[in-house]
Amino acid sequence: MKNVALIIIDIQKVYFCEGKYFLPNSEAAAKNAGKILSSWRSAGNTVIHVKHHFQLNEELKHLNDIHEAVLPKDNEVIVEKRYPNSFLKTDLLEVLNAGKISEVVIVGMMSNMCIDTTVRACQNYGIKTTLIHDACAAKSIDFGNEEISADIVHKVFMGAMDGMFAKVIDTETLLNSCE
Question: Is the Cα torsion angle 14, 18, 24, 27 positive or negative in sign?
């Protein structure tokens, strides 16, 4: 699959620690992303890591680090970003074009922010996208006077993207298709 890249978006330590950015399903999502990454590397396919820069005070800056479940290797590209859309003011499109990549598989965090905006942007560039729902995680959100659970938020965003913006499947389905 030389024209297909795995893009791992923002699987960073900040999402695994209690506090403002904690994602309830981060561990399970990272574990599945790690399985996909291992399979992808074994096949010699292109891997691109996307890393968000959070505004953290000095003693918490280490939480910007990529989580150990998906640590990059020396030959893998790391795209650094400051906005939810992984294409906005980054070189991601240039990296994909240079590698003649026309299709991507996306995993990462947060389903309702960076995953959503990046998947939708792929359509703008004509990039065919497969999104792995159980290798992504969301957080709960408040709307009005109601808290909407992370599980519901995740399902709504996956459902909204499925079909129109991406083919949404699970880890097992992807791994079985790669054999």
Answer: positive
| Block residue for tokens 């079909």 | 163
Residue 40 region, left (φ>0) first, then alpha (ψ -120 to 50), else beta?
alpha
With a CB cutoff of 8 Å and minimum separation 6, the contacts of 99 are 5, 46
pLDDT at 1: 58
| pLDDT tens column, 41-92 | 999 999 999 999 888 778 777 788 899 999 999 899 999 999 999 999 999 9
CA angle 50, 160, 174 (to 5 degrees): 55
Give the number of domains in the chain: 1
Q: Tell me if 77 sits within 8 A of 95, measured CB to CB.
A: yes
CATH code for the domain of 95: 3.40.50.850
**Residue (of 75, 28, 27) closest to 171 by Cα position:** 28
Sheet holding 103-109, edge to edge: 77-81, 46-52, 4-9, 103-109, 128-137, 167-169
Amino acid letter, 2: K
SS (H, E, C) 3-21: CEEEEEECCEHHHHCCCCC
Q: HSE (CB half, 13 Å, CA atoms) of 141?
A: 13
Task: Report the 10 Å Cβ neighbour count for 124.
Answer: 10
